[in-house]
Amino acid sequence: MKKVWKVSEISAAVKDSLESKFFDISVIGEIRGLKWHTSGHVYFSLIDDKTVLNTAFFRRYIENLSFVPKDGMLVVAYGTISSYPPRSNYQLICRKIEQAGVGEKLLAIMRLKERLQGEGLFDRSRLLPKFPKNIAVITSLSGAAKEDIKNVIARRFGGINLYLFDSLVEGSNAESSMLRAIHRVKESISILNLDLLIIARGGGSKESLDLFNNEFVARTLYTVEIPIISAVGHQIDTTVVDFVADRRAETPSSAAEMACPDIHELSARYDTVRLSLIKSIRLYLEDKQLSYTRSSGMISKDSFYKLLDRKSQLTDFGISNLALIYRNLFLKQLHRYRMVSDKLIGLKLQFIKEYKIKTYSLISGMNQAIAYESMQRRTKVESIIELLKTLSPVATLKRGYTITLKNGKLCRFADIETADLIETRFYDGVVKSKIQ
């Protein structure tokens, strides 16, 4: 019958096999996704044109490093392939790295940027519409980017129409999916009266930025006739699409804030302008009244005050109408804001309830796992204790054997001579003898 392995046993065996077979090796590759952990350790991936190898570089080895590793560097890493049993994945435990130049992938992106810049694709910077009515958004409908954009725009300036164009943002089919989405936007500009395009990605690894460094995507995006905001969602890296777009935002939420004004700021600005206008008019009228006083005799006092009253009344009517218009606009946007707020509060409560259920489920699972692990360890300890008891000299004596000592030390038959004093130990007693 074949052996049935436990999961932990097969994981440990794989770990031992990897470490023994791939011990003290050297690997060349391009650094991608480098992260400095608060513990001082560094984690990154080594890539070539086909494969990714996760790598861990611990702090005790970093102290001897003669350069600062960065994304895009081509390096030779020295270390041992190992696995992490709890997740059953393997990685390179790196002890030393040496520079080997610039990675092919980064070099290709740099060359593409230089070529497109030379053709003028990075020189365009169109003004964004101040009050857009229809905004197109290209993103994955399964990602978080679309919700971030919808929530921010609803909070800042309700009433804007959002048109979502679904596209993959990573993977082997992402390029064709993105090109189709861009063409659909171009065809819809006149039909939907689109004012602005946001192209967004809701986070992810640096490796998934490949789509936004694609030459065909960049060239097709350049042909879009309306202003573009790029919101790739990676604050560190600037992609080719970022350069082609008219504006670059670090996150989808930032892109939404950039795309539309804030109704609350507009309301505050309106109040400031209205008060300033009233003050200016009053100063103007007071100045005219003073001029009249100084040039007495030109018109009668009664005629002047009648004219002044008419002008003041017209001014009051104008200010009142302007205030009414802005007040109605403000109340309308405030109503929409409250409706969105109520909806968000409901979603928040639902999220808290679901999160609480998941938390309780996780705690229950953890308790079961801890109990199971404790039982396994207890069984293992008991087995070791029984084995030690079996191998104990006391257990051997208990089975009827004896131990012979000469001068307090174990001895063999050949060591015993005439007149020697020996001591024979049984399980339940000791016999001292003299050899004759």
Output the keywords.
single chain; 436 residues; alpha/beta; OB fold (Dihydrolipoamide Acetyltransferase, E2P); Rossmann fold; 5-stranded mixed barrel; 5-stranded parallel sheet; 11 helices; 14 strands; elongated
Under the CATH scheme, the architecture of the largest domain is 3-Layer(aba) Sandwich
Q: Enumerate how many helices there are, as a single number.
A: 11
Oligomer: single chain
Q: Please tell me the total number of domains.
A: 4
Judged by helices, strands and strand pairing, the structural class is alpha/beta
How are the strands of the biggest sheet laid out side by side? 1-2-3-5-4
- Compute the number of strand runs: 14
Measured on Cα atoms, how large is the radius of gyration?
40 Å
The CATH topology label of the largest domain is Rossmann fold
Share in helix: 40-55%
Structure description:
This protein has 436 residues and is α/β, with parallel strands linked by helices. It contains eleven helices and 14 strands. It has a five-stranded mixed beta barrel with strand order 1-2-3-5-4. Strands 7-6-8-9-10 form a five-stranded parallel beta sheet. Strand 11 and strand 12 (409-410) form a beta hairpin. The longest helix is centred in the C-terminal third of the chain and has 91 residues, at 301-391. The chain is elongated. The model has no long low-confidence stretch (mean pLDDT 80).
